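Figure 2 data, in text form.
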Amino acid sequence: MSERPPRPSTIMRQWQMLRLIPQAPRTITVAELHDKLKAIDFSIGKRTIQRDLLDLAEIFPLTNPVDSKPFGWCWMENAARMDMPGLSTPAALTLALMEQQLRHSLPPSTLDSMQPYFSAARQTLNATNERAHAPAWLDKIRAIAPMQRLLAPVIDEACQRNVYEALMQNRQLKLSYKKRDADAAVSYDAVHPLAIVQRGQLIYLVCLFAEYSDVRTLVLHRVQQAEILYLPARKKEGFDVDAYIASGAMGIREGEPLRLEAVFARRSGEHLYETPLSADQQLRECADGSLHLSATVPSTRELQWWLLGLGDGVEVLAPAALREQMKTTIASMASRYAA
């Protein structure tokens, strides 16, 4: 072997080769290794792979049986297979993206246990050849909300940890909670966690209070103290978090679902062909090129904000109460800008 210390990218490549080589009697050819390595961003020639195999065979119990057809390499039949701790490039990329996108969605205990894997993923991506595509992916992909970006509020880490742990263990919580306009915090002595929902930059605890049956939401950054109680949390019969979200509850619901009818300027409404408002949406083109929409949607403040955000690109026709509310809001806005 060469006296020159191997580069990190070389070590990572050889690590992956050892993982790809099967146990005898199965074998893998140089061409197959070449294709598999190329698929995980190690673009090297077959001659380099042949040299690597010869070098690795001096250290590890690898062999190339002369009677194998096609000619290939394998771990010796009675050799103890190594559990290689290295990560493949795709696995490292997946873990890096998971850390980036799900940091606030994972329970803290899970996040703690994942830290060694996140660290290994960073090391793998740092050691991979600079010309590889996968490490660069982290600098080329972002998830953004389709709205004005707001800064996330500060959440007490200890409170978040206890809330998430109680949810995982199905245990009750005692919370000290300060409402936005309140001078002092209030105490909720028996909180039964049902789910965690992240909406934009805010994280909500969906829960039940004491013996009440109505589902409530608490914003996590307003929790000032959280104590896990040694009491089982109560469940709500038939509760489904997806159905709860679909009902419009997280959009600050203001009533029963409504049948929205509106006319959109083409520039404002044509995206609804690809991203409809509801499963029963009907969208037809009018003679003047505008789009007439009819859809059953939750009655939420979020719906109103969205419609107002489209400005003169939309006119609400029905229901009458929503149309009147839009007129009142627009008139109020006009008076503010009249001066």
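Caption note: The mean pLDDT is 84.
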